[in-house]
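Model it.
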Amino acid sequence: MTTLSGMLKGIPIILLVVWVAQIFSPDLDAKAGLMARDLELRLEIVSSGASFVQQLMLPLFLMCCLLFIVQSRAMLTRFMLILAPLLILGVFLLVSYFWSDSPGDTLRRAARQVFLFGAVAGAVVISRSDGRFVSYLQVTSLIVLLVEASFLLLPGISWDPHGNFTGIHSSKNEFGGVAGTFLLMSICILRYYAESPVEKRMAIVAIVGWILLLILSGSKTPIGLVVFLLPFLLIHHKYLRIVSLGVVALWLAILVFIPMALIGVGEAPIDFYRSILPEEALTGRTGIWYHLLFDLKKSWMFGTGYGAYWGVGSVPAALDIKWSYYQLLHTGHSGFVDLCMEIGVIPTALLLVVLGAFIVVTRESTDAISATLLTFALLHNCLETSFLHGMHFVWVIMLIAIFNILCTSSQKIGAGARLRRPASARRKPIGGAASGTA
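Modeled.
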């Protein structure tokens, strides 16, 4: 009976992660190397939205989690405590409706984020209630790995025209985010959590599998991030927090402090950035950013409204103008830049400051797996847009890490709901008495 109860408590977190990993909605279109098809996909992204049934799935998932949570007063209290900080962010996103360039899109997309916050918080609270949180993530990793690897048998679907493995996704970048996350997660589990031979073998299988698939994908961003983070992860997970703080400080400097200093001496920030980083750098991303900086002048303080920059309005009829390539994009390939476009420079800076304060204040509650997921998500967001971006896989993983840290912070020392520590914590506690959350 205990085993059955544990399996049921793991369903929400497993279901949520495999859902956002697109297991239930794989891209089954053949990857044809035709520019016309690529343009068609971009036009669909811009002009279409999720169906009514799809939009109902998230509220229904949240409702099912709440039906379980309300049975325990302790779980309900913890759920409300950890959800409160993110609800403040959700309220701001909703309020941006009043100055949005596209109010309907802002309201719909902001409401989805609020439901997402509740759904992730509920899944984390439920999965932590029996001490198997990391075990559920490990099982999820193997499930997704099995599904992704099975698409090796479908070359017309799972490989793009350039010979890169895309798995069940439409592009190598989408797959790379999933593979990089699960690879680092598996390494973290082997390093800090795996105790029994079975757990260690499962972690090794996941590591080998994700390494092979990630190499086949040729997705440079996640490969580079994994290589960069691996030494920090293997030495001690506390160093990952330092990397996270470094990312926050770097983007505060890029978006706020350096531009303010340059404006103070009468220089244009965009000229400075172009002098140190040419448009061809970072596989063309910098060219996109420079174009967005010109647009940012129109509403730099509070942006266009959440979700009201990309994927709204009509596609221009003329596709041969100078910036047509950018008009057919659906992200700026940097979540921090996109945040400035949608919610403005001031709120983005404030959000980064709050995030930095969160990382510092919760240092005694940050366990190894949360530090790993949070750091990878922040770095990934530098070169790809994931932060506050729909139900992007890396964004949901970042939310799981944040809620897991908040959940540990909300627990009293010695509370019975504490999860088991990593194996190494038995010799010496990692990050304090409450940090070994598994």
